Amino acid sequence: MILVTGGTGLVGAHLLLRLAEGETPVRALYRNADTTRKTKHLFSHYGKQNLFEKIEWLEGDILETPSLELALAGVEKVYHCAASISFDPADEKLLRKVNIEGTANVVNCCLALGVRKLCHVSSVAALGDLKYNETVITEETEWNPEKFHADYAISKHGAETEVWRGWQEGLEVAIVNPGLIFGYGFWNQGSGEIFKAVHKGQYFYTKGTCGAVAVEDVVEIMIQLMESNISGERYTVVAENITYENIFNAIADGMHKKPPFIYATPFMTDMAYRLDWFFSKLLFRKRHFTKSMSKSAHKHQNFDNSKIREALNYNFRDIKSYLTKIGEKYRNNHQ
């Protein structure tokens, strides 16, 4: 038996789609029955509605140990995809509770109930900080607690600490650190909102660089790691280091839309996050653009994916053509 947490998110849903094609029974946690509809829609999009019925859905929460214990009964492998993603400073407590405490609960229950192996979905945000003489971020880059980190990054780093604790206590583990993940569906969250923005007519772009990857690559790598004898390792899962400008352009090509044409300077994004803070207080709404997002928009990050390529002899999808393809699918679904 396999258990997937976070099966109603982008990675978890695509993972379930892939796992349901196999012979091993699959179980998935959900907190709200309505959220499973997004996953069901994904299965329908690929014409695999029958596979959705193979999944055993259990109501539960990684913050509620009794429901986790029930979900883990008879389970041999766990894919831990559940996480809270936010760059709003107001969500600091939520991020720490879900990402750190929730992961600790998963690890503890795995140890207590004899689960053999755990695959944890982390983030490149949890990787280390470059020193003055370094230019490329790898799995060995050291985390510097004295440097500024967004609350999300801190929570994912803390979650990894819990996974390493489980490994030291005898649990087989594999950690993946994906960059910005793109994929079909889930347009109202995460990277899906970028497609919405481009479709509506995105005017601004920045020249910062990030690591990007297709969700299918993330899922395939997770499965291969879990089926291997690899344990006690983490891997940077990035197909390419790409500018935000090129991301917008590739998506716009697929949508037959005009690409963003106004360069948002650091001064402009600095003003934008301050104005967003003002209006969030005035209108009592959540933040849409924060200081950490402003910094990331201009930050140049260079991630090295050689470790995972060599470990699995893996070849990533070309991210630009992939973005164009997903952009075209979005356009066809929203005409």
User: Would you state the CATH class of the domain at 2-186 and 212-238 and 302-317?
Assistant: Alpha Beta
Largest sheet: 7 strands, parallel
Strand order of the largest sheet: 3-2-1-4-5-6-10
Outline, from the CA principal axes? globular
Show unreliable segments. Answer: none
What is the helix tally? 13
* CATH topology heading of the domain at 2-186 and 212-238 and 302-317: Rossmann fold
Relevant CATH superfamily of the domain at 2-186 and 212-238 and 302-317:
NAD(P)-binding Rossmann-like Domain
Work out the number of β strands: 12
Binned, the helix content reads 40-55%
Query: Which structural category do the helix and sheet elements fall into?
Result: alpha/beta
SSE string, helix = H, strand = E? EHEHHEHEHEHEEHEEHEEHEHHHH
The CA-CA distance between the termini, in Å, is 41 Å
Cα gyration radius (Å): 20 Å
Organism: Flavobacterium beibuense F44-8
InterPro entries: Epimerase_deHydtase (IPR001509), NAD(P)-bd_dom_sf (IPR036291), NAD(P)-dependent_oxidoreduct (IPR051783)
Domain NAD-dependent epimerase/dehydratase: 2-235
GO molecular function: aldehyde dehydrogenase (NAD+) activity
Short description:
The protein contains 13 helices and 12 strands.
Written overview of the protein:
This protein is α/β, with parallel strands linked by helices and 335 residues long. It has a domain at 2-186 and 212-238 and 302-317: Rossmann fold (3-Layer(aba) Sandwich). It has 13 helices and twelve strands. The strands form three sheets. It has a seven-stranded parallel beta sheet, with helices on both faces. The protein has a three-stranded mixed beta sheet with strand order 7-9-11. Helix 1 links the parallel strand 1 (2-5) and strand 2. It is globular, with a radius of gyration of 20 Å. The termini are far apart. 40% of the residues are buried. The mean pLDDT is 92.
